[in-house]
């Protein structure tokens, strides 16, 4: 398998460069979220913070009522841009704009109609003004997200992530200002609306500046819109599964344990989501890349891209999961201080589930890129059914850890199913050999590394005791990492999970990265020309 999986040519350079910019953008986004969370908690009590989280879940849910259209823009824009068919791209955008204009009105009207029963069912207090503003934000956000998909479709991740970083700075400044003004949840909602409006203007201006051939003249195409809905409907199942997987458990906790309990669960979810986001960035450029390859009928290169992404995502994901499980208490104490000890077990449980979910990401993204989203769709159906059932059963007996365990169990089952059907229906080879080669030995290395570090703590208990002093927590985490990293890498080498080709890829990436940092403008022109 390894002999053909190397970084070669302009295609791979563009894929790596796009991944780098996605990593930069995603890391910045999560860094600001992690830094803002303690600040928000210092201005809101746990009940208010829980209410804000539930309102955010409502916003994410309403955005998924677009019948899957939002999921189709990257695929179609990428395909038409490969052919330099700007007329089709204009039709895609204008048709989407008409739909989202009408859709926004429906969101606001429908959301207001169901407000009272929604608030009563999930035990949400008086937050009507903030809720109305959230509905308006949903309507604007969908349009700006559609325009941002232009840069993702043409594989200009440098542009899309640069815009997202600028917008996140605006959002962070607004969050601080509105909370300092004492506006609480209402201020956070108002900031969301202002940020969404600024995003719409800034993104569209940059689209026109980068691609003058794109315009919004009357280009409505009902037939094209139907095609996009047909494709997006399959992706929509996956998006709904993501909602079920990452949001519904919070609603279940709100319903059965109260709104304050959501705050402790959200803290755990944010931390594990950050862990999950890092390896996902490695495959974030796979959809437009494989879409381009599919347009060229280059199946061998698609398989190489899939295997390469799977291998390196597994290397990183398993290391992150193992280290976070090991350091959950220390990280929470360093991040938020005392008072969130109940979130430790939630972080450890969710880290395993979120990690397993990432391991199926390469198959999911490749399937979507080649126009076969049904693989991920079927796995997501399983996830969407199992997750709420298991969470509802376990939350009654084990409280919040039960909801986390239900989510994790559902993720494991759906990820295994996704890998099986993707290999059976597209790759044409047995998945079990790939599971053994790519996943099993790396998981073994992670488990052994955890046990080794825990043994070190037993042998030198003074190190573990540093966890009780917040100022010494960074030193403990750094020392544990200094022990964890070389042991994990040594085990990978011993288990033949790191080969000479991997070293060649690493050296090539370092050389490429060094040259890119020395001459960023020149290299961007060469890669994106």
Tag the structure with descriptive keywords:
529 residues, globular, mainly alpha, 0% strand, disordered N terminus
What would your notes on this structure say?
The protein has 529 residues and is an all-alpha fold. It has helices spanning 9-43, 46-63, 73-82, 86-113, 115-121, 128-153, 157-180, 184-210, 222-257, 259-282, 286-295, 299-336, 343-359, 361-369, 374-427, 431-459, 461-465, 473-494, 500-518, 520-528. It has a domain at 44-220. Helix 2 packs across helix 6 (128-153). Mean pLDDT is 85; it is low at 1-11.
Describe what is shown at a glance.
With 529 residues, the protein is mainly α.
Straight-line distance between termini: 32 Å
Major sheet: size, sense and barrel closure?
Answer: none
Proportion of residues in extended strands: under 5%
Number of strands: 0
- The structure class reads mainly alpha
What does the overall shape look like? Answer: globular
Element pattern in H and E: HHHHHHHHHHHHHHHHHHHH
- The assembly state of the depicted protein chains is single chain
């Amino acid at each position: 398998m390894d002999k053909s999986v190397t970084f070669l040519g302009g295609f791979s350079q563009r894929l790596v460069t796009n991944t780098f910019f996605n990593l930069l953008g995603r890391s910045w986004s999560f860094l600001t979220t992690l830094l803002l969370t303690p600040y928000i908690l210092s201005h809101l009590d746990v009940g208010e913070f829980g209410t804000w989280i539930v309102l955010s879940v409502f916003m994410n849910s309403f955005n998924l009522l677009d019948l899957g259209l939002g999921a189709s823009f990257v695929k179609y824009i990428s395909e038409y841009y490969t052919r330099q068919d700007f007329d089709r791209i204009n039709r895609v955008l204008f048709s989407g704009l008409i739909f989202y204009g009408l859709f926004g009105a429906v969101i606001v009207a429908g959301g207001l109609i169901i407000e009272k029963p929604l608030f009563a069912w999930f035990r949400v207090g008086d937050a009507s003004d903030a809720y109305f503003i959230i509905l308006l934000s949903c309507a604007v956000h969908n349009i700006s997200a559609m325009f941002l998909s232009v840069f993702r479709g043409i594989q200009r991740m440098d542009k899309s992530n640069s815009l997202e970083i600028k917008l996140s700075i605006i959002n962070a400044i607004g969050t601080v200002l509105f909370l300092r003004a004492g506006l609480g949840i209402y201020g956070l909602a108002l900031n969301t609306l202002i940020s969404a409006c600024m995003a719409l203007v800034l993104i569209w201006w940059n689209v026109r500046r980068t691609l003058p051939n794109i315009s919004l003249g009357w280009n409505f195409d009902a037939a094209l819109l139907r095609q996009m809905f047909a494709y997006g409907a399959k992706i929509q199942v996956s998006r709904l599964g993501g909602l079920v997987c990452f949001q519904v458990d919070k609603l279940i906790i709100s319903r059965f344990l109260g709104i304050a309990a959501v705050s402790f669960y959200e803290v755990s979810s944010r931390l594990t989501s950050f862990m999950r986001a890092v390896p996902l960035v490695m495959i974030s450029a796979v959809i437009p890349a494989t879409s381009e390859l599919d347009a060229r009928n280059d199946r061998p290169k698609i398989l190489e891209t899939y295997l390469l992404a799977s291998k390196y995502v597994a290397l990183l994901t398993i290391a992150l999961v193992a280290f976070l499980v090991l350091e959950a208490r220390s990280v929470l104490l360093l991040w938020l201080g005392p008072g969130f000890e109940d979130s430790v077990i939630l972080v450890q449980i969710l880290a395993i589930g979120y990690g397993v979910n990432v391991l199926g990401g390469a198959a999911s993204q490749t399937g979507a890129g080649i126009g076969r989203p049904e693989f991920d769709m079927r796995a997501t159906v399983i996830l969407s059914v199992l997750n709420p059932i298991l969470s509802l059963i376990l939350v009654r007996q084990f409280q919040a850890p039960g909801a986390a365990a239900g989510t994790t169990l559902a993720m494991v089952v759906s990820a295994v199913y996704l890998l099986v059907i993707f290999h059976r229906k597209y790759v044409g080879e047995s998945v079990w050999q790939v599971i053994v080669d790519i996943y099993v030995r790396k998981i073994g290395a992670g488990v052994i590394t955890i046990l080794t570090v825990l043994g070190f703590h037993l042998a030198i208990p003074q190190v573990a005791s540093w966890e009780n002093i917040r100022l010494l927590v960074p030193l403990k985490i750094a020392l544990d990492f200094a022990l964890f990293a070389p042991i994990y890498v040594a085990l990978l080498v011993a288990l033949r999970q790191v080969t000479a080709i991997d070293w060649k890829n690493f050296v090539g990436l370092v050389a490429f990265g060094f040259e890119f940092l020395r001459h960023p403008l020149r290299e961007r022109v060469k890669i994106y020309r």
